[in-house]
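Limitations
The structure tokens in this dataset are predictions for the assembled complex, not deposited experimental models. Users should treat interface geometry with appropriate caution, especially where small molecules or nucleic acid strands are included. An illustrative entry is reproduced here so readers can see what is and is not provided.
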Amino acid sequence: MRMVMRSRFTRLGRLGEVSTVAKCSKCGSKAVIKIPYARMNLCEMHFIEYFEGRVATTVKKYDLLKEGESVLVAVSGGKDSVALLSALTAVAPELRLKVMPLHIHLGLGEYSDESLRVTKEVSRKLGVNTFILSLEEVVGATIPELSAKSSRPPCAVCGLVKRYVLNAAAIEWGVDAVATGHHIDDLAPYALKNILLGDMGAALKLAPVTTGEEGYLARRVRPLYEVTERECLIYAIIKGLPFVKTLCPNVFLGGMDALIRRFLYELDLRHPGVKLRFMRSLARMATRYGVSQARTQAELTRCKYCGLPSRSDVCGFCRLTERVLGSPAGPMVREALKDVRASSH
Ligand code: SF4
Ligand code: ZN
Ligand code: ZN
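Predicted assembly:
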């Protein structure tokens, strides 16, 4: 038993970049993670408290969700969304939130089957009821099929489908906001890339919240805005939560994004907290200039088929499915979401 405990501590310690003799800054017991920007080492218990506290503080500080509101949580089964679901479920009573998880089975072969299995297991562990929507069952095609038939890259199609379904679910179910598991290591490289390419508008859209419009466009919130990828991973391990360990077969780890990610990682090692300060200043700018949502809303109209947001008379999802499948699938998705909700009662 002692051997098992020691090896778990050593593994966590390595992930947490803390020495084997380091002590928790709060209670003096064995530390499992170093938080460089806060100049703290924390034990398992105090790290869980820290992580969940940080999520609760982010929700309050950026006014992501108000007391009594409901939030749809996008759960893919990856460590980040699993950490998000767990932390939001933990702070929900204190913040008086109703958490509604949704998993979309995208039809990406074994990867999607494993994601669904893990999502169900996590939901059982956390005692939450996760809604499941299968793309293939609802529209009759998977992401690889939609991608092949439209000659568009799988990730572009996947992003479009996920954005559409999450917004449609929030509107159909009358949920106040959609929460995604984007953390600082997802957002900071993307923000910096947009700034380097001269697209400040796109960078500002990476703020912690983008406001919505009743019955049409759901507010989008990022409760993990101030936590890192490493913290999400360690939180999920300490809490004993299962998560998908393999990568999606379509994930691309090269190119400019990878270089920027590497640069920010090195920079943050030498100057702890620099990524956090960068994203906080971006959030302040987005609030000050009101760029992200005001501009988005002015650009949007309603899709003539499904009634959801669009930049022209047909939204991207209905256009794609009309071209590939012969008819726009937006209305079908909205109907299916009503059934998914009803069947869970
Ligand atoms: Fe979808 Fe691409 Fe992510 Fe795979 S890597 S889940 S296809 S966006
Ligand atoms: Zn402690
Ligand atoms: Zn549409």
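Some entries come with short summary sentences. For this one: The pocket of iron/sulfur cluster (ligand 1) is lined by residues 143, 154-155, 158-159, 248, 250-251 (CB under 6 Å).
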